[in-house]
Amino acid sequence: MTFSKKTKIVGLVLLSSVILLGITLFLIGPDNSGQGEVEVFEPSSPRIEVFSLAAVISKIDAQQKLIVLKHPTQDKDISVIVRDDSEILKVEFPFDPKNPPSQASFAPKYTKIALQDLKPGNHALIESNENIYNKYEFDNVKSIQVLP
Question: Which residues pair with 111 in a beta bridge?
Fold first, then answer.
């Protein structure tokens, strides 16, 4: 069976039209209402948590149970309200901290003291039960260690 030239041309045109229609439908496609869209998740920055602070005491108000500290990196004060169950300890080393021995292992001595024993200029390590990151006042104080 032989095909005429006219039939071959019509067949090729028809085949080409079907292929072009398929490509067009594939590229345009029906509206999938968000299907196929890629959603990019950017990881959030990790939450910063700080539970201790080393700073210098600038003021003490024993009646209000308040200690004011100089912020270690900013020109601001931090107010710390001391609770009745907060532990206040004086840390003592068995050597002069300004001239430590070259090779020694030691355990510091901790002595309980009262809030009234603290003085402006003392270096203190404040430990809290709550996250104190970016706080300039907090009251959930676990312990205060006064360093020599």
Answer: 90
pLDDT of res. 32:
53
* pLDDT number for residue 46: 78
What three-state secondary structure class fits 147?
Answer: strand
List average pLDDT for each run of 10 residues in the chain, which is 148 residues long: 68 76 73 60 79 96 95 93 96 85 83 96 96 94 94
Geometric angle at alpha carbon 147, from 141 and 148, rounded to 5°: 160
Burial of residue 141 (number of CB atoms within 10 Å: 0-12, 13-18, 19+): buried
Take residue 6 and report the two structure tokens written for it: 């006219």
Instruction: Identify the DSSP state of 116.
Output: G
CB 69 within 8 A of CB 53: yes
Q: Tell me if the pTM is above 0.85.
A: no
- Going by the DSSP 8-state scheme, the letter that residue 40 receives in this structure is P
- Chain center to CA of 43: 13
Residue type, 62: A
Q: What is the DSSP letter of 46?
A: P
CATH 1.20.200.10 fits 52-147, yes or no: no
Sequence letter at residue 127 = E
